[in-house]
Amino acid sequence: MDMPEDVVTVDVNVAKDLLASGSRYLDVRTAEEYNNGHVDNAVSVPYMFMTQQGRVKNPDFLPQVSLVCKREERLVVGCNIGGRAMKACVDLLNDGYQQVTRMGGGYTAWAESRQETNK
């Protein structure tokens, strides 16, 4: 089983370069967070849902990702600040995705760095 230390983390500037060279951005925040603003051309698959009991893991996360992303694709994974993206990357690596990179700082860092966003 892969551990978090196996996850490659890059900053926003490196992530932007990866996206410019053909990687896809996988946004693992909730639909509400995504709808409030997201990285251009991002694919949205929530890793967790907000419920009355708090956040719960999306039981269909991997099947939903497999519908929109191929295992051989290069993916940049981001959430709001980085925690969910780390867990999502570990799950993706364990499921056979080989080129998974976590964007450190998440969407918060992306927006603060004045990168292009979709609102």
From TrEMBL:
InterPro entries: Rhodanese-like_dom, Rhodanese-like_dom_sf, STR17/STR18/HARC1-like. GO terms for molecular function: catalytic activity. This is Rhodanese domain-containing protein. PROSITE patterns: RHODANESE_3. Residues 19-119 form the Rhodanese domain. Gene3D superfamilies: Rhodanese-like domain.
